[in-house]
Design brief:
46% of the residues lie in helices and 23% in strands. Helix 1 crosses helix 3 and helix 2 crosses helix 3. It has 316 residues and is of the alpha+beta class. It has helices at 2-16, 21-28, 32-44, 74-83, 86-91, 95-108, 111-121, 141-150, 217-232, 243-248, 251-260, 278-286, 298-314; strands spanning 49-52, 58-61, 152-159, 166-179, 182-188, 192-195, 199-208, 235-241, 262-263, 269-275, 292-296. It has 13 helices and eleven strands. The strands form three sheets. It has a five-stranded antiparallel β-sheet, with helices on one face. Strands 9-10-8-11 form a four-stranded antiparallel β-sheet.
Length: 316
């Protein structure tokens, strides 16, 4: 544990330059006193590390020093292999670079670890899209990715669901997100989210695009997802549901049964399920057949009952 922490200190100072003991402690999630002891250990090992006192002080390595730390622990090598998404790299136009990087990584590993990583690669495969999702072509993805990397404004013609169906937009790209096999562009002004496969035409301009100060793509995406689900489930339905019916639920409905469901004497569960539109709730609950009974709201219960009567007459 300590040896790993000492290596982390060296790598942090090599990549970031001067850092205070407090900054190192926060990064490594240890106490400042522990950092002091680790620095003493590095000194004793002959590492050219020095510290300056004062408000602008901190630790840093002598200019030009590089530790040449190329060794990887087994778990680190595994993480790099499993983090690699060759399909995503291909779609971004980086497939060749990804393959080269994998070859270089493999060549840098000692023989036993190389064999372990090769075996691991044959036993894990990442297939992001869902079973029933059709693959979506995004012909302009490489150009969008290049604009993201270079920080250049995009002039696009975009297809959307409301009228007018096609609109022209100038977008300042902040980042790309791969969600369930589909690529999304987060861009200003806004920022707003655009499906890359809905871009009809595209021109990368010479105009510079910069994200707002402090913009965090991952944090923005998490908040966008939270708001999306909050808008998605704006209604509720009170139901009685059998164990078999509960097992067929997914997503928020399944969580609602698990978290707030109340068991009843006959083995069924009374629960309040989040629902989307009345049409969606009607179709979803009907799909459970005799494994669910809608109790409220009254309008939804009456609508399900009317559909059941119509089906009974049709099949009588």
């Amino acid at each position: 544990m300590k040896s790993s922490r000492l290596l982390s200190i060296l790598l942090l100072l090599e990549t970031r330059g001067r850092m205070t003991a407090a900054e190192l402690a926060a990064e490594l999630e240890v106490s400042v006193r522990t950092v002091y002891r680790d620095v003493e250990s590095l000194h004793a090992a002959g590492v050219p590390l020095y510290g300056d006192a004062g408000h602008r002080g901190g630790y840093q390595l002598l200019a030009g020093h590089r530790s040449r730390l190329t060794g990887l622990y087994a778990r680190e090598a595994e993480a790099l292999v499993l983090a690699g998404l060759p399909v995503a790299a291909d779609e971004l136009g980086l497939g060749g670079h990804f393959a080269d990087a994998q070859l270089k990584l493999r060549a840098a590993l000692p023989a036993p670890l190389r064999e372990h990583v090769d075996r691991l690669r044959t036993r894990f495969h990442i297939d992001a899209p869902g079973w029933y999702a059709e693959s979506t072509e995004a012909p302009f993805l490489p150009q969008v990715a290049e604009a993201v990397r270079a920080g250049r404004v995009l002039a696009v013609r975009y297809r959307r669901w409301q009228e007018p169906a096609e609109v022209d937009r100038r977008l300042a790209p902040y980042g790309l997100v791969l969600k369930a096999g589909r690529w999304y562009l987060v861009a200003g002004p806004g920022p707003r989210t655009y499906r890359v496969d809905q871009i009809i035409s595209l021109t990368v301009t010479d105009e510079e695009a910069t994200a707002p100060p402090g913009f965090d793509l991952a944090a923005h995406w998490r908040e966008s997802q939270r708001e999306f689900h909050a808008r998605l489930h704006q209604g509720e339905a009170v139901v009685r549901i059998s164990p078999e019916g509960a097992a067929r639920l997914t997503g928020a409905a399944a969580r609602a049964v698990a978290d707030t469901g109340v068991p009843e004497p006959d083995g069924w569960t009374r629960a309040t399920l989040p629902v989307e539109t009345p049409d969606h709730a009607h179709a979803t609950l009907l799909a459970l057949g005799t494994e669910v009974e809608v109790l409220a709201p009254r309008e939804l219960r009456d609508r399900v009952a009317a559909t059941v009567r119509t089906l009974a007459r049709r099949y009588a």
